[in-house]
TrEMBL record:
Protein name: Glycerol-3-phosphate dehydrogenase
PROSITE patterns assigned: FAD_G3PDH_1, FAD_G3PDH_2
Entry's EC annotation: 1.1.5.3
FAD dependent oxidoreductase domain mapped to chain residues: 8-361
Domain of life: Bacteria
Domain called Alpha-glycerophosphate oxidase C-terminal: residue spans: 384-493
InterPro entries: DAO_C, DAO_C_sf, FAD-dep_OxRdtase, FAD/NAD-bd_sf, G3P_DH_FAD-dep
Organism: Acinetobacter tianfuensis
Similarity remark: Belongs to the FAD-dependent glycerol-3-phosphate dehydrogenase family.
Catalysed reaction, written as an equation: a quinone + sn-glycerol 3-phosphate = dihydroxyacetone phosphate + a quinol
GO cellular component terms listed in the entry, alphabetical order: glycerol-3-phosphate dehydrogenase (FAD) complex
Top EC class, one word: oxidoreductase
GO molecular function per UniProt: glycerol-3-phosphate dehydrogenase (quinone) activity
SUPFAM superfamilies assigned to the protein according to its UniProt record, in alphabetical order: FAD/NAD(P)-binding domain (SSF51905)
Length: 505
């Protein structure tokens, strides 16, 4: 085993909450270790509806504090990460038998004024032209409001990058297999492909998402303070259904809603579902019932009729919600709960994260750091609200970034420049360096994925496999053929071997 390095905090879990806590803590001067058993954002944090939103439907369940906090965070994240967070207008077709117009107007009034709006437009009533609208002719009126779209996986990765910039150690594909306390410290055994090793930490943060309770039970041999309910949410991706750039929020007879969202220029994203999940969170897959549910809701609203044959891709994740004993899955709170272990004499603190949603990850991290204040009284003050995520520095707009990239790298396609601008922002200029021609980017491994970008993702963003790169770093998996994926994996294997030989030498 390696030397037992001592950290202030060790974070278990590389999803958005773990990465957000690691970044906040490291920026306050704490020494931080984060381990993730798979890739960053490889589970719940890359399986969302890709939205930064207040949660309009949560108002029906009187989740006013959560909605207020989430609405405020929309504006914060628009400033923090303008390269990956974008304003989007949402249209809700009105169906009087589901919710009366006065109720929707009241909800949208609260939605407009519960949180401070600086950049986002307020809500409005709209009428649909039967010729121009993608909706069926029986939908003649509705409502429109603002929320934001986000690349969820990149939001997670960029928080990990920021944590590392402040000195945090990020260990992917590393599982904590043992956690014991000794002399007031946590003694943690880590398992990785390179072998097992032990670290020490003054505080342990359990941000394991769907595994938050099982980590406590199986690794810590204790009982969790709260129960957890795993709720499966699934999405399908189909070819672009309509030309306009607005999303739709569709009401359904079961009181649930389904989003229909323009996605990556050429696709439409449809989701999500809500169903209890009790199997292995490592192997979540969409069911035929969920597929039919999403197709039925869409086909009841849109002129374009879909079948299973139209589905380009699908994905599923489980949301680890704090169990509030609600009978209705849709009503189970999406709010987060933080549980600090009883601080008996000689026992190091354990902070566990139950629940939470993508939009409020930064506030969750601030709340976690507030718990840590008693143990680290010299740590710095909160700082993340007004800080920029990597790539947002000097970022004015995607259009300007695309123009600059195409000017700098002669021969670069507009499609690749746009992808770079919306994934990396100004970070792209750091790994492009002094390159002035597309021919200097190295081999094109498919669809504008050049060798230089792959090397950057391996060296600086913890990517190991083709799936890491295509699904969670670039979203190019929707364009790559099976043969191209295999070729990329071959390239990555050779790249890792070259890196290993260089390290040995």
């Amino acid at each position: 085993m390696r030397d037992q390095k001592l950290y202030d905090i060790a974070v278990i879990g590389g999803g958005i909450n773990g990465a957000g806590i690691a970044a906040d803590a490291a920026g306050r001067g704490l020494s931080v270790f984060l381990c993730e058993k798979d890739d960053l954002a490889s589970h719940t944090s890359s399986a969302s509806s890709k939205l930064i939103h207040g949660g309009l439907r949560y108002l029906e369940h009187r989740e006013f504090r959560l909605v207020r906090e989430a609405l405020a965070e929309r504006e914060v994240l628009l400033k923090k990460a303008p390269h990956i967070v974008h304003p989007m207008r949402f249209i809700m077709p009105h169906q009087p038998h589901l919710r009366p117009a006065w109720l929707i107007r009241a909800g949208l009034f609260f939605y407009d004024y519960l949180g401070k709006r600086e950049r986002l437009l307020g809500s409005a009533a709209v009428r649909f032209d039967s010729c121009d609208s993608p909706l069926k002719a029986n939908f003649t009126r509705g409502f429109e409001y603002s929320d934001c779209a986000v690349d969820d996986a990149r939001l997670t990765v960029l928080n990990a990058v920021q944590a590392r910039q402040h000195g945090a150690k990020i260990a992917v594909r590393t599982k904590c297999i043992s956690a014991q306390h000794m002399a007031g410290l946590w003694l943690l055994e880590m398992q990785s492909a390179q072998g097992n090793y032990v670290i020490q930490a003054k505080m342990l943060v359990n941000a394991a998402g769907p595994w938050v309770a099982s980590f406590i039970q199986n690794t810590l041999k204790a009982q969790p303070s709260y129960g957890i309910r795993l709720v499966q949410g699934s999405h399908i991706i189909v070819p672009k259904m309509y030309e306009q750039d607005k999303a739709f929020i569709l009401q359904n007879h079961d009181q649930r809603i389904v989003f229909v969202i323009p996605y990556l220029q050429r696709f439409t994203l449809i989701g999500t579902t809500d169903r209890e999940y009790q199997a292995d969170p490592n192997n979540v897959q969409i069911s035929s019932d969920e597929i039919n549910y999403l197709l039925d809701v869409c086909n009841a609203h849109f002129k374009t009729q879909l079948s299973a044959a139209d589905i380009v891709a699908d994905y599923s994740g489980v949301r680890p919600l704090c169990d509030d004993e609600s009978d209705n899955l849709s009503a189970v709170t999406r709010d987060y709960t933080l549980a600090l272990s009883s601080n008996t004499e000689g026992e190091p603190p354990l902070l566990s994260v139950f629940g939470g949603k993508l939009t409020t990850y930064r506030k969750l991290a601030e709340s976690a750091l507030a718990y840590m204040q008693a143990y680290f009284p010299d740590m710095k003050q909160p700082w993340t609200k007004n800080s920029l995520l990597p790539g947002a520095e000097n970022f004015s707009s995607a259009e300007d970034a695309v123009h600059t990239l195409m000017q700098k790298v002669q021969g670069l396609s507009a499609e690749t420049a746009e992808r770079w601008a919306n994934a990396y922002g100004t970070l792209a200029f750091t790994w492009i360096g002094h390159i002035s021609s597309v021919h200097e980017l190295g081999e094109d491994l498919g669809h504008g994925l050049y060798a230089l970008e792959v090397e950057y993702l391996v060296d600086q963003e913890w990517a190991v496999t083709a799936e890491d790169i295509l699904k969670r770093r670039t979203k190019l998996y929707l364009q790559f053929s099976e043969a191209e994926v295999k070729a990329l994996d071959v390239y990555l294997t050779a790249l890792h071997e070259r890196r290993l030989q260089k390290d040995v030498a």
